[in-house]
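We were asked to recover a plausible sequence for a given structure. The inputs and outputs are reproduced exactly as logged, with field labels preserved.

PROBLEM: sequence recovery
POSITIONS: 312
GIVEN STRUCTURE:
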């Protein structure tokens, strides 16, 4: 910095000629930034202070180069740092709790002996569990029905609490119908992949595959929302999801790590592929969302119809 007046062979950089919104005077922050730009490009210059005002002086011979370098820098960094786009949300907690209550009621019905349709508890599990060999032989509906079955109340309660938290968040972003359609799709995909990679005798039940699918969807969507960030903070949602998988999906004697892992990975894929809910028209978004939700419900009913068609 210097207070010496400009000489005849020096040109004063006029901010307004490069950046109209900068006005006639430069802030100390912009002066330092422009000075660093010129220094990096090896353009001789000096910073001059006049009372409370600042300016940059360059030799006349380097005037065009100096203005070009500063203008190029400002154009490339016009939208930096990126602004986080806020996602419009809507509370679907009541609807989500209602659906979870239905799952709990269904679990209770499967424990009755005899239960609905005259079925015994073991028949529900025999016909609806994710049996790897059966799925590979074409019984795709087991990837759906297994999500609705649980070993006991402890198993169910854990999935209801953890899944309910993340399902409510996902539905707040995507809408209730669309959110649950994505949850079901991630659970189905996770069970399908797991069936193809496990031994033929492998059996599994529980909504946890879809729970970790939900976490994967949310992680992917949040990472996409940060797509303009050029640092490692962009990937914090993925790290958080992996941590949740390690904490809640990798322990326990009867834990199906494969189902949890593949559910999470399936959710990541869906989260990256699903259209951004901020980009769609609200009316069309709502109409499609409820259609997707009804389609998901119909798929669950159809899956159990196929699973039980030989039982009565």
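RECOVERED SEQUENCE:
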């Amino acid at each position: 910095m210097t207070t010496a007046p400009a000489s005849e062979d020096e040109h004063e950089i006029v901010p307004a000629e490069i950046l109209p919104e900068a006005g006639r005077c430069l802030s100390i922050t912009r002066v330092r930034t422009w000075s660093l730009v010129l220094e990096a490009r090896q353009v001789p210059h000096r910073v001059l202070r006049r009372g409370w005002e600042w300016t940059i002086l360059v030799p006349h011979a380097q005037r065009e180069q100096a203005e070009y370098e500063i203008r190029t820098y400002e154009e490339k960094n016009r939208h930096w740092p990126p602004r986080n786009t806020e996602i419009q949300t809507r509370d679907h907690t009541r609807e989500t709790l209602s659906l979870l209550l239905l799952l709990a009621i269904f679990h209770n019905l499967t424990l009755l002996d005899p239960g609905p349709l005259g079925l015994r508890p073991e028949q529900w599990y025999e016909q609806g569990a994710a049996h790897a060999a059966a799925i590979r032989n074409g019984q795709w509906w087991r990837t759906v029905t297994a999500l609705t079955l649980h070993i006991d109340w402890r198993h169910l309660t854990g999935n209801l609490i953890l899944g309910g938290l993340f399902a409510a968040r996902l539905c707040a972003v995507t809408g209730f119908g669309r959110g649950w359609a994505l949850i079901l799709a991630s659970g189905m995909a996770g069970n399908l992949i797991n069936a193809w990679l496990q031994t033929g005798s492998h059996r599994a039940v529980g909504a946890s595959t879809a729970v970790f699918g939900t976490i994967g969807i949310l992680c992917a969507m949040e990472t996409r929302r940060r797509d303009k960030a050029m640092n490692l903070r962009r990937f914090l949602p993925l790290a958080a999801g992996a941590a949740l998988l390690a904490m809640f999906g990798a322990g326990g004697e009867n834990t199906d790590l494969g189902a949890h892992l593949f559910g999470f990975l399936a959710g990541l894929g869906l989260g990256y592929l699903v259209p951004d809910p901020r980009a769609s028209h609200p009316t069309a978004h709502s109409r499609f969302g409820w259609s997707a939700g009804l389609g998901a419900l119909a798929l669950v009913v159809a899956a159990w119809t196929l699973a039980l068609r030989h039982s009565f």
